[in-house]
Model the fold of this input.
Amino acid sequence: MKKPHYIKCIYDCLKTLFILAPATLISFIFVKITNNNINVAIIYILAVILISRITDGYFWGIISSLAGVISMNYYFIYPFFSFDFTRNGYPITSIGMFSISLITSTTTIHLKELVKQANERNEKNSKLNEINNKLLTMNGLKNIIELALEYVWELTGSTVVFYEKSPQTGNTGIIKSCNPIHDRLINSHHEQFMAHWVFENKKPAGIDMGFPGYSSCIYLPLLSHDNIWGVIGIYRTAQIQPDKNTISSLNLIISQVAMAIEGQHLSDNQQLIIIETEKEKMRANLLRAVSHDLRTPLTGMIGASETLLKNKKYLSEEAQNKLIEDIYEDSDWLLHMVENLLSVTRIREGNSSVNKTPEPLEEVVTEAITRIRKRYPHADIQAKIPEDFIMVPMDATLIEQVIINLMENAIKYSGNNSPVTLLITKGEEYITFHVMDEGKGIQMSRIESIFDGCSQTENHSSDSSKGLGIGLSICKTIINSHGGNISARNQNNGGAVFTFTLPLEGSLTNEYKSLHPDC
Amino acid sequence: MSTKACILIVEDEPIICNFIATTLSANNYKVIQCNTGKEAIALIPSHCPEVVLLDLGLPDMDGLNLLKEVRQWTGIPIIVISERDDEKSKVLALDSGADDYITKPFGTSELLARIRTAIRHNTRLETGHTFPLNTFKAKDLFIDFNKHMVNVNGEDVHLTQIEFKLVSLLAQSAGKVLTYDYIITKIWGPFAVKDNQILRVNMANIRRKLEKNPVDPEYIFTEIGVGYRMLEDD
Done:
């Protein structure tokens, strides 16, 4: 807290007196001892220099030099204790002493000013450096904006608002507030229009900024390379004028923030491009795998039907039936494939997340099992699910697809007609699905890459594992986009286990029933 | 079947149209085919088919609009043929008056079963015979609507008021899918919240009481995203 002006004045006055009085006393002693008044002038000049150094401004320096000349004349120059400026040679001494003390005092004060300014500049520079460093190391737009608000707030001591986009496009500003009344004012239509105007014209607006109309804020655009990255509004009433230094630091901070935001935007864009390329690559891979996998059954179907059409009379009925059966099987497989691909399109473009709604676990499992039964009427399927009524947030169609894919794999590839078990357990945060078979298990070399979508190694003919790769990679995509995990391993006693989890967050368990006893 | 039931196929895809027509003819139905919605509107009153098979994706008009238009003047059974993965349009079709739906691709036995159900329901409606039903029997499930009694394997099943209402509603339209909204309106009234949570909790309780293994149901089937279907009565 700064002292009020008049108190400072009194302090300075006292300081002056406290230095002048001892100076006069010392001079007296000096004159008494040496009986010589030559050194009195020196003592007074010293006193004046001291006073200039410890008081503020030029005033006390000048006053004390004047007082020095007068008191020297009064006390130490003959006639003692009376004024006489006319004595021979004395005017020169007086004027000389006065000018010397005046010049030294003003020089001292000037020097003091310079030192003060240099210190201030240093402080400002180090502050700016600090801001700059922090802005450069800061990651994320939100952090940069928060930091900028913090600094501007510190600098101006008033409520600050930041707009990333014009408030008239529905963007709400981030406010660092000193007073809730300021917030209300800033959010008024008029103020929002001012901010909008700054976005449109890329020029500062508000008080003293040449924008017509009254405003409680000044709005400064964050400009970099002719692009506007945001607008900072500073609340202030017209009475308090910020000084020049504050304004210049403010401008510096703002240009640095603008650059930091631009940098952030650039790196964000780059990130996006990288992700986009990655996705494009994935899509291309999937497409390649799919076309390869689709060609096989299509070749079979075309060949078989062509044979039937052209050579029917040469074929035995048994051979004909075999061909028709092949067509049926291949088309069934194709359908399975297409359903898998369709499910991928349900995963929303872009943010790779799914539309989750709470679904009763048992209904989803039931439908999946019913559909598998339809396709494999002779398969031995067992399902064990928790007794409780559990609602799990998910896209039911997709999870159904995952269960079907895993169980179908188990039925087809376990190598014998062994039972396939679906076991579901409920944990604290996750619900876990296990699909187990008692077949020959997964080859160790393939466990790692089994979900990668290209599991056809050279040792395996593409026919023996057709569809497995894509089916599993789709399962992985689906489970991951639900926020769960999928893994594969072999059981100790043989047979493969595929395990996947779904987060239970936000689901309804049987607490629901206790809340609604009437249902 | 002594008299040939007449079935109208409204489907623009010639291969599918052909396959359905062949199957139905082989199963002793009389088949009329048409490729556009306008043609269908002209054919339905003139031929009075017993069942209409309607593909929702027609070249000249939306199948749903056709459905609504036909429903203004006739109650003949309409089975909608729809794509998989599109629960919304299934629900919309059922709520706009379709009797049933069948999802592409479908097997012939499934198609024939749906057609039989539709015809039987319609006959009941027209003759007023055994409708509303007094009793219902499917496999080991026996329901007596007047006595409020439900039996599985000869053992009494105790259902709450709401559970019994649900089971009877499904049994009255056995073989048909009833949508969530339809069931909620019927049981809880037209102003009930369209939140199917309560319905599903109730269904889960019913399943636990009726089915030997709730995950492998025999009587009440779930059509995810659409509604529930009761096994057809014997």
Notes: The domain at 353-514 of chain A is CATH 3.30.565.10 (Heat Shock Protein 90).
